[in-house]
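User: Sequence in, structure out. Go.
Assistant: Echoing your sequence, followed by the structure tokens.
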Amino acid sequence: MSAEAGRENAMSLRTPPTSTNTGQAASVKIKGAPSKYVKLNVGGTLFYTTIGTLTKLDNMLRAMFSGRMEVLTDSEGWILIDRNGKHFGTILNFLRDGKSILPRSRQDLEELQAEAKYYLVSELLEKCQKALKLKKDEFFPVCRIPVITSPREAKLLVAKTRKPLVRLLFNRANNKYSYTSASDDNILKNIEMFDKLSLRFHGRVNFVKDVSSGNDEICCWTYYGRGVQVAEISCTSIVYTSEKKQTKVEFPEARILEETLNVLLYEEVESESDDFDFDFARVRDRGCLYSDDEDDHGAKVKP
């Protein structure tokens, strides 16, 4: 009796002899114990799972694998489902565990929502709809400006980027003396100029703000091309009055613009779209490739 049942169970996933010989798919009804494994071909992507997983929740897959609906199988016993298999694994994980990690991009969320709607997985469909609702108010910046807080991060960033790089270091707390009357306004003008240039050239040049405290500079522009420093503009100087020393911060607008245009000479035609796709926190946790006593600047080169 058991041998006969085993043969019937094996035959339930096979194509009839006529279909096997012709290479065409055949319609069969699939039914078996929850622990029984089935082979699925979803749009050319292959999956191997149990009937228990497929029939765990009330959805179309339960109807397909509980004997209520006919399904197509090929000559090798693969059950054919005419859908894109890109997100079917996510649906299987949701059926197994009752939860699944949703994709981050809006496009993938919309694709997964369509699949959940087709398979009538209502719980997953609701999660996709809620995630897409949150995506509507998501802000996508025109350009991203990394803020570095240590010389190590600066060195790693310069070493990694392939695009020209403009770095503005500003730290008002580094001052040992009092500021001249126009210094505070000039610091703000430098920052405003940096923001304007970053919006103007963000697709061609990488811009970085440096607020690290391990530097004596108060306001300084540094330009890098192909991994080495090519120019520097220090906006700070010490002036002497009759009574005391004062720190003077200038705003050399023309030179800043000139050096920014000059650094474009180091632009590569085929450059990465995003050179800042790495984790600074991971760098801090694992240590740095550089030591603090290494020279901050590479050899200067000319275009």
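User: And one key feature?
Assistant: DSSP finds eleven helices and 13 strands in the chain.
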